[in-house]
Predict the 3D structure of the following.
Amino acid sequence: MAGTDSSRLQTETVTNGAAPTVLLIRPQLAENIGMVARAMLNCGLTDLRLVSPVEPPTAERAQAASSGATLVLDHATLFDDPLKAIADANWVVATTARRREQVKPVMTPHRAAAEIRARIAAGQKVVVMFGPERAGLDNDDVSLADAVCEVPLNPAYCSLNLAQAVLLMGYEWFQAGVDVPPYELVMNETAPATKAEVLNFYAHLERELDLCGFLRVEDKRPSMVRNLRSLFNRAALTEQEVRTLHGVVSELAHGSLRRARKLGIPVDRLLPDPQPLYTSKPLFDSAFSDKLMELFVWRRDVRRFTTDPVSQTVVDELLSTACLAPSVGNSQPWRFVLVDAPERREAVRANFAVANAAALAGYDGEKAENYATLKLAGLDRAPVQMAVFVELDPPEGHGLGRQTMPETLHYSVVAAIQTLWLAARARGLGIGMVSIIDPRAVREICDVPEGWDLVAYLCLGVPEEEHADPELVRAGWQNRISMDRVVFRR
């Protein structure tokens, strides 16, 4: 187990004196001193004393072996005599692996920890004494102790490494003073799913299993359904896990209708109106927020695509997501035209070439040279191209919200494009917008009604390269401007 939280060091793990002192008698290796310091700090112990160590705790090998527990090593105290090291103690316990011919209380680490806690609570100074690595404490050392602690291990082989012994004693002491439940399900920022949410997921899962033919054996279906429900019931699902499972089932369901028909399953009978996937308020936790911010940063206007194909299923799903965008009066004025015909694509490409040449003529000097180096279109390689239009007078919405601002129809389409852009990026795809183009010519190329205006011509595909910063920034065309240039207060 690894990992520390240094921000909690003083407030939660260092006990500032209300803890026993660890005393090492004649330790032989600097590495062992360092590992003891690490074990001590694991258990909130910081007071280390050493009697006649072969190497000091400041030795480089001790520091390295401590894995950062220098707080213990830097404040360690050195003595030349065990009597001096325990002079201020009220109670001393000696750790040993073998019985001595001395009449003393013998305790397990668990019992000793309770005694240490009680004595410290009463204001006493307690020292836990450990012997050298090779042979442990000698009889003279043990005679200085008020009690002996033995670890009940394999009697034929109960020798412990020095750091192991300190860790074992420190652990028992620490556990004796903390109230930690033996089992806890950490929920983070989610909550247990309600039965309604779980049952809704069952309905979704079982509907898709019917469609794909998994539950096609009628007499076995009830028991199979019960077993599946029991499996998920044992999992004690959270709200977030139920949402994730809905997404998994939806992804796996691609092509299930086709497979159902092939198996002769009566699809129409199995397609009731789907229940909503989310029946409670969604929980967007911090992990989701972090990922969403990554999505914004890495969205980018893509110009360089691979020729890898994008399935029509994915395109349909992306367009369905785009249609969730807000629109004025709920008019949904966006119209997506997929440009598949080679002759139409070639016409768009030729239109871009003419417009691009005219745009280049509008610059001179260094700006013209810079413009000529820019790759401004993905028309040559993007596998999916679409023109996005706005219907200027859609019957939907009944004119609500656009009497005084008819341009909100265009803004609604822009919102749908941005939704499409983010949804594509979340699937590892990229979108590039071609704006150096004659919109009237594109409308004619796409053969759309007179009342449609072009808002954007988009290229969609797999990005050839990934960048978090805009290509125009990398090319030196235009840097981002600061937020104070675009945010005002009145």
